[in-house]
Design a protein that fits this description.
alpha/beta; Ribosomal Protein L4, Chain: A; 2 domains; six-stranded mixed sheet; 7 helices
């Protein structure tokens, strides 16, 4: 084993050990910095906000072009428009307006946070590397049997594949707590949102290439 690397066991779909895979220690065995994970998750959730809510100010409410009554002599308070924010049906003062909530952290911070998230799953012994993940048909029952054979039947599981697999994705979509992602879409939020992480050998190799470089 090369210096600065970690050997992870690789199992079959029946959880029989079939070999090992060597990955850089920084990818799965580094320190877990909770503050960094927190910041990246906040950034991801902010990016998901639609920001489309909006209220109409006085200038956007239709009607009210005519002064309701003359300025003086009526005994009533002055009024310039029936669309004043003081009137029912009028504009809204300081209401929410459409805005962009998303913000991006530096790329180095995002990569470091993903390494920390993987390290947290490895430290908790929740990372399972499978040699390959193949199903005979796109049936929920087949996916449930596969996860049961791997000892993951009762947990929320994030399944990471090297490339999109329509059969696996369709078989898993009706299982509560199970999500399938290609390696390129792996992110901190989904890793932390699932108790177990199931990664194929090919997917882990791709992740290691992507995250194994020094910051």
């Amino acid at each position: 084993m090369a210096e600065g690397t970690v050997m992870l066991p690789v199992v079959s779909q029946t959880r029989a050990k079939v070999g090992e895979i060597e990955v850089p220690a920084g990818v799965v065995a580094g320190p877990v910095r909770e503050h960094l994970l927190h910041e990246v998750v906040r950034s991801q959730l902010a990016s998901r906000r639609a920001g489309t809510v909006g209220t109409k100010t006085k200038g956007f409410v239709s009607g009210g072009g005519k002064k309701p009554w003359r300025q003086k002599g009526t005994g009533r308070a002055r009024a310039g428009s029936i669309r004043s924010p003081l009137w029912a049906g009028g504009g809204t003062i300081f209401g929410p307006q459409p805005r962009e909530w998303s913000y991006r952290l530096p790329r180095s911070a995002r990569r470091a946070a993903l390494r920390d998230a993987l390290a947290s799953r490895h430290a908790a012994e929740s990372l399972v590397v499978v040699d390959q993940l193949k199903l005979p048909e796109a049936k929920t029952k087949r996916m449930a049997e596969c996860l049961g054979g791997l000892g993951l039947g009762d947990a929320s599981v994030l399944v990471v594949l090297a490339a999109p697999d329509d059969v696996v994705e369709r078989a898993a979509r009706n299982l509560p707590g199970v999500k399938v992602l290609p390696a390129r879409a792996l992110n901190v939020y989904d890793v932390l949102a699932h108790a177990k992480l199931l990664v194929t050998r090919a997917a882990l190799e791709e992740i290691a290439r992507r995250l194994g470089d020094a910051e």
